Amino acid sequence: MTDTTIEAPATPRLKQFYKDSIIPELEKEFKYSNPMQVARVQKVVVSMGVGAAARDSKLIEGAVKDLTAITGQKPKITKAKKSVAQFHLREGQAIGAYVTLRGDRMWEFLDRLLTLALPRIRDFRGINGNQFDGNGNYNFGLTEQTMFLEINPDEVDHQRGMDITVVTSTKDDKEAQVLLKHLGFPFKEN
């Protein structure tokens, strides 16, 4: 007989940092009696609108390929709900794609975003800290996909921006901002 040991997959670095350092700090800061009251990141939604896909349907394939490479998960394609003649848009036509990340994949994406992608933005001074939605969720946009190392700049067919939404378990914007600041989000100083 052979002894085979199965190793558990490694815990993402940012998730371990959250468990070890951030939860105790937030417990002290907000005077929680229970660690389950501390705000958590529940999911991250990365979406890419491709308005030009109304004229050229191949552009949506490039967006799907880029989102798959960036997030490691196949995106869901969004379709137009109504026809709009001025935009040459037909009902049911593909106009965007999005990915919802949860669990370890979410933590690994946030780690890559904060440590590798955001510092690669030219003349980066931080992200706007006023883009909370009133329910503890943070939304921000990026102008191009080439800041991610998974995208080869030589193979980019079209420059596409993306919107990223970080959904937290708290309903308070201040508490969510403190959580994201502890995670390493580089907010601008106003």
UniProtKB/TrEMBL annotation:
The keyword Glycoprotein does not apply. The keyword tRNA-binding applies. Residues 95-187 form the Large ribosomal subunit protein uL5 C-terminal domain. Gene3D superfamilies: 3.30.1440.10. It comes from the Bacteria. One of its GO terms (cellular component) is ribonucleoprotein complex. Pfam families: Ribosomal_L5, Ribosomal_L5_C. GO terms for molecular function: rRNA binding; structural constituent of ribosome; tRNA binding. GO terms for biological process: translation. Residues 34-90 form the Large ribosomal subunit protein uL5 N-terminal domain. Keywords: Ribonucleoprotein, Ribosomal protein, RNA-binding, rRNA-binding, tRNA-binding. Transmembrane segments: none annotated. This is 1 of the proteins that bind and probably mediate the attachment of the 5S RNA into the large ribosomal subunit, where it forms part of the central protuberance. In the 70S ribosome it contacts protein S13 of the 30S subunit (bridge B1b), connecting the 2 subunits; this bridge is implicated in subunit movement. Contacts the P site tRNA; the 5S rRNA and some of its associated proteins might help stabilize positioning of ribosome-bound tRNAs. This is one of the proteins that bind and probably mediate the attachment of the 5S RNA into the large ribosomal subunit, where it forms part of the central protuberance. In the 70S ribosome it contacts protein S13 of the 30S subunit (bridge B1b), connecting the 2 subunits; this bridge is implicated in subunit movement. Contacts the P site tRNA; the 5S rRNA and some of its associated proteins might help stabilize positioning of ribosome-bound tRNAs. Part of the 50S ribosomal subunit; part of the 5S rRNA/L5/L18/L25 subcomplex. Contacts the 5S rRNA and the P site tRNA. Forms a bridge to the 30S subunit in the 70S ribosome. Belongs to the universal ribosomal protein uL5 family. This is Large ribosomal subunit protein uL5. It comes from Bifidobacterium tissieri. The lineage of its organism: Bacteria, Bacillati, Actinomycetota, Actinomycetes, Bifidobacteriales. The gene is rplE.
